[in-house]
Design a protein that fits this description.
Blueprint: H1 2-29, H2 33-55, H3 58-89, H4 95-101, E1 108-115, E2 121-127, E3 130-136, H5 139-156, E4 162-167, H6 179-184, H7 192-205, H8 208-211
Parallel strand pairs: 3-4
Antiparallel strand pairs: 1-2, 2-3
Helix pairs in contact: 1-3, 2-3
């Protein structure tokens, strides 16, 4: 029992530090975050306290209001922190891969399964919706990458649906902040065993990066990439 209490005490400073860092990060992008959280907490507490006086139970409603004020502030903080994080990630290389890594249980993601000379990249996620190819980069260039990858998927796993998404703010594209929601809304057509079998087949397929030795560190000047672009896991 003592060990559990000690572990909990050691974990609390870490959580508080993480919350403080998240707040600082959010405040850099959202200058009004402090005022907003204070307003949400005060208004929520004030409403419940007023109701308490009206019905003759200010103490009970005051305590309930205090708890709900904290909860409401935490919810608002979480949403604004998420919005700030996406705002900072928008347009950064690998942003879509970071979102895919946190999509949740039931999905297996493989970043950078295809890439071209211009650093446009395609990531792959496998779940009960099938295979989802997520591209980030120039919309015109990534279309050829997606077409080539879909063709390869159809050869290896022809019985599994393949979806393709392009991250961006243009027409027919998916905003980074909506990527996770969009994927989770896709119809589920595979069972758990089918998802596992699909992942095993794709893993057995391998990729160019796993079979081609590359030098460590920066790419040497003058080194030419193979046609079709490198593909990395």
């Amino acid at each position: 029992m003592a060990r559990k209490d000690t572990a909990a005490d050691a974990a609390n400073p870490g959580r508080l530090k993480q919350i403080a860092l998240t707040y600082k990060m959010t405040r850099r992008a959202d200058k009004k975050i402090g005022l907003v959280l204070a307003a949400v907490g005060i208004v929520t507490f004030g409403v419940f306290l007023a109701i308490g006086f009206l019905i003759g139970h200010p103490i009970y409603l005051g305590i309930l209001g205090l708890l709900l004020a904290f909860l409401a502030s935490a919810i608002v903080f979480g949403r604004r922190a998420e919005r700030a994080a996406f705002g900072q990630m928008e347009g950064q290389p690998g942003a879509a891969a970071a979102v895919l890594d946190n999509i949740g249980r039931g999905w297996t993601t493989t970043p950078a399964v295809a890439m071209n000379r211009s650093q446009d990249v395609v990531h792959r996620a496998v779940g009960k919706a099938g295979i989802v190819l997520v591209a980030e980069g120039n919309p015109n260039r990534v279309k050829s990458l997606l077409a080539a990858e879909k063709k390869k998927m159809n050869r290896i796993v022809a019985d599994v649906p393949v979806h393709d998404l392009i991250v961006g703010a243009g027409e027919g594209q998916v905003e980074l902040k909506k990527l996770r929601t969009t994927m989770l809304k896709l119809p589920r057509v595979l069972t758990g065993p089918q998802v596992t079998a699909t992942n095993d087949r794709l893993k057995a397929m391998g990729d160019l990066m796993s079979n081609m030795p590359l030098p460590k560190g920066p790419m040497p000047k003058g080194m030419k990439l193979p046609k079709g672009g490198p593909k990395a896991r």
